[in-house]
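Work Package 3 (structural annotation) set out to generate three-dimensional models for the target panel prioritized at the project kickoff. During this period the team completed the workflow that converts sequence records into discrete structure tokens, so that structures can be stored uniformly alongside our sequence database. As a representative example, we reproduce one entry of 152 residues exactly as it appears in the project archive.
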Amino acid sequence: LSSVALFTMYVSVIYNIAIARSNSEVIMNSVIILFITDTDEQVFDVLMVLNPRWVASMSRKMYYDDKRKDGEGNDGRFQELRNKNSRLQGEVDELRDQNSELQGEVSELRNAIKSIRQEMMHINKRMGSGESHTWENDDTLFDGNEEKTPIS
């Protein structure tokens, strides 16, 4: 409340310097300002008696509205959370893409392992049937570009 009184005094001094041409006009302007200030305080007191919860809720609302205008309060925090949420959503999308790529690679590796198992079973069958086998001439294990060495 004291800040309102100081602000009123400051404004009335500026106003009186700009408008008043004589001492009587300064006194008259000061009395008008005091009357308006006093009337405002009395209206506030009446409202406090009639509905104190409404006055308290309006005071809180005005306080938080002022904080938002200053960039303080919950709006700043909400904006910070929105930005963080957007950033995290981007990271989740990126991780989903990476996961999809890894699943494709895993599928390729499974197919390669399955193919290697089939080749090993084929080799085991040939070796178990008594066929003579030389590793250097066996093209069934390799595509042709790899170095041909026996599997131990």
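The CA atoms of residues 3 and 9 lie 10 Å apart.
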